[in-house]
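Below is how a single chain appears once it has passed through the pipeline. First comes the sequence as given, then the structure the pipeline wrote out for it. We keep one example in the README because the format questions we get most often are answered faster by looking than by reading.
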Amino acid sequence: MGFVNMKGKIAAILLALVAAPAMAQDINFGDDSSEWARDGECDDRRFFGPGMALSVTWQYVGQDATDCRSAYEAGRVSLWNMQEALAATQCAAIDFGDDSGGFPNDGECDDARFEGMAVAHVLTPDDIRRDASDCSRLCFYGAVALREY
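Resulting structure:
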């Protein structure tokens, strides 16, 4: 009986470890080599939340360590997770807007509200709700999900 009880405890501990959110020491924040480092905003696109810069690009991934670590530890940013975002994104409930942006129908979602494997390299607030055809199609196919979930 003691062995069965021990197996249950081990299973509970393993589940807690797997389900636990990433701790700051588990994240490679990189360095401060970005031109925007130490400006009080996290410019690393791997994160999302109110501590983020308005425009994000893949260029600054791992190059804004101090800002991103501070924001993460303060709970102002979280590490973006595709599986969690896909599970939380309800494409049918999203107002995708129109196709009045600079790059509609190019096969990439240019709306800064989204992230994923089919999202544009640079995201700015100017393109929010302005790439509806691309973003809605890619959302329904599971290639993009909301950054804020």
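The longest strand covers residues 52-57.

See the next section for the split statistics.
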